[in-house]
Amino acid sequence: MATDIQQYHIGNNRGNKRIWLQGRVLEDHGFVAGTRYNRSATDGRVTLILAADGRYVVSGRKRSGSITPIIDMESRDISENFEGCDAVKLVYKGGSIVISQSDLDARIKSREQRFVRTVNAGKPLNCASLYMGGGILDAGLHEGFKLSDLPAQVKVAVEIESKYLDSSVRNNDFWAPDALRLNSPMELMLFGSSAPEGIHVLSGGVPCTGASRGGRSKNKIQFAEDHEKAGAQIFYTLQWVANLHPSLCIFENLIEYASTASWSIAKGVLDNLGYVICYREFSGAEFGALEDRKRMVAVAVSKGLHAALEFNIDAVMPRKTKPAVLADVLEVVSEDSDVWGQCSYLVAKQSRDLVDGKGFRLQWLDAEIAETVGCIGRGYFKRRSTEPMVKHPTRNGFVRLLTPVEHAACKTIPIKLIDGIDSLSTVHEIIGQSVVYEWFACLGTYIGRWTKAAASIYTGRMPRPEFTQKESANQPQTEMAL
């Protein structure tokens, strides 16, 4: 006999869950109008079996000369067995119908249970890092995890540039002993039986080359998705989420990315996969950085964990104050060093841009006056026209690039994370395409404390607390008033 499988969203009627069956599939498996059947319910599963003396009767609706069989179930056992489920799976075979939670709901429950078991046992959470770069974002998160006494380790990492991955391996201590490090473009990796298992947290910043105003202008594209290499990356990122099923996903990107079709698709897919998206726009200066770059940060939280304890990304508070002026982070550089130059070609370019009505302007800064600096990008070592350079203290028209140490300081990045990089271009690339470190150190601290509380509530170990984070100039503090 053939087998039919259906999956669909559960209905609701006056607060009760309702399952409505009708049509050809019932007839094909013997559930015609007027036949009797029994129903049993145990452990999240409801079973209907045909029986001549059954307690229940298949009802019917006459239409166009034929009778359509109908089974309408709305009772306490239906609501109790499918509490927390949005959809059900029905398997019809041999005079029986077995109703259970949908495949997706089963995976959601599985990932949440795996997450809370690991947390409550005090074992390390396994993290996956996409587009890792030099591991700056991950280093910040893991510092926060340590500050909140949450064990965690990077189990899987993906990075296209081997020199960036080499730096991360050398300079970070968050690696699992059996970590899987993938030096590859995302699009070359296909999932199958070899997909990594047991991942609890996923993080990554989808390449923003096509989303920025400069990137669209340079590549002569209208939409972020038109970019030859970066345009489709959200697809591959969502594949990782769908296959790994982590309980937390952490994303970072340009503010403009929130207005792209890619992010709209991502929000829809993440919602369908059972995540609640918590979004916030972070600024560098707010978190102690001289580089006042603005970025969107989104945390997708598995819905059952969020229901146990709301994840409030707005409660993430800074722990450091910004240096007063740029001079506070500068190294000692001799006034007659050959790093100083006139860059007359940039002055000429600015003049042309002014004539053409373009908005690009030089950012040559007096270190004793500048309270913030603009965004410093991946190609900073090329001496580009819109990125910050330090004015010579005495020689008019002479400027220099920030040193790697100064560049890192502007983003609050610990110097140890760029140790051993001999190439000036590579070190500026790693720092320039990275993040404000303090965003993720503070976010990681909040995640750590929230995670332990949410896991305890989810498993009934403690009542729901009032969970807040109060601001401190030196250290984020989380209070849980029971």
Work out the helix count.
Answer: 13
Strand line-up across the major sheet: 13-12-11-14-15-17-16
CATH class of the largest domain: Alpha Beta
Estimate nothing, just give the exact number of structural domains.
3
Mean of all residue-level pLDDT scores: 90
Instruction: Extract low-pLDDT stretches.
Output: 470-482
Largest sheet: 7 strands, mixed
Measured as a percent range, the helix fraction is 25-40%
Number of strands: 22
Task: Write the CATH fold name of the largest domain.
Answer: Rossmann fold
- Give the second-level CATH assignment, the architecture of the largest domain: 3-Layer(aba) Sandwich
Derived from helix and strand composition plus strand pairing, the structural class reads alpha+beta
Radius of gyration, in Å, reads 28 Å
As a percent range, the share of strand residues is: 25-35%
The outline comes out as elongated
CATH superfamily of the largest domain: Vaccinia Virus protein VP39
Distance N to C terminus: 57 Å
